[in-house]
Write a structure and sequence with these properties.
Helix content is 8%, strand content 45%. It is built from two helices and 13 strands, in the order E-E-H-E-E-E-E-E-E-E-E-E-E-E-H. Strands 1-2-3-10-5-8 form a six-stranded antiparallel sheet, with no helix packed on it. Strands 4-11-12-13 form a four-stranded antiparallel sheet, with no helix packed on it. The radius of gyration is 18 Å and the shape is globular.
């Protein structure tokens, strides 16, 4: 980032994502763009406003191994899924998600009519691994790599090395 940034949510370009029936959000990136966040080009933290429409969630239940997240709920109400169970959240609440399984989370807008709006402040450390416990997936983000993989498809550490050695000769 390198300099002080002052932005108003109404002046920030909106990125809309709705790739699955249950998941939808509008993102207003305060520090950099989504692409810069993915590549780790925004410095040590990433800041964005999120708007979740009624009845939707923005991301599946997950936790991070390198990055912490802080959510400040600006308006609306929702349900925060955690390892300790579901918790009601609303305007004025601050949610701090540490790294590791104890920080697993998912935010769902519980209103039938009102948007849930929050400020998201994340650390931005690469490489990053996100674990999705409900679906046995892992997300990898590092130096141009952004992949979601099935943890059920485990392989041996030396898998493919024999073929690689043949190709080198």
């Amino acid at each position: 980032m390198g300099e002080i940034v002052v932005k108003n949510i109404n002046e920030i370009e909106t990125m809309h994502q709705n790739q699955h029936e249950r998941y939808e959000f509008f993102r207003h990136a305060v520090s950099g763009t989504g692409a810069a966040y993915r590549e780790g080009e925004d410095g040590k933290m990433v800041v964005a406003f999120y708007t979740i429409p009624p009845g939707k969630s923005n991301f599946p239940y997950h936790y991070h191994t390198a990055n912490e997240e802080v959510f400040y709920i600006i308006s609306g109400s929702g349900v925060l899924e955690t390892p300790q169970g579901d918790r009601e959240i609303g305007a004025g609440d601050v949610v701090i998600c540490p790294t590791g399984a104890n920080g697993a989370h998912k935010i769902t807008n519980s209103s039938a009519t009102e948007n849930l709006v929050y400020l998201d402040v994340d650390t931005n450390i690469l490489p990053e691994i996100a674990i999705y416990p409900h679906t046995n997936k892992v997300g990898l983000r590092a130096d141009g790599v952004r992949e979601i993989l099935d943890l059920g498809g485990k392989m041996d550490y030396y898998c493919g090395e024999e073929e690689q050695m043949k190709n080198e000769n």
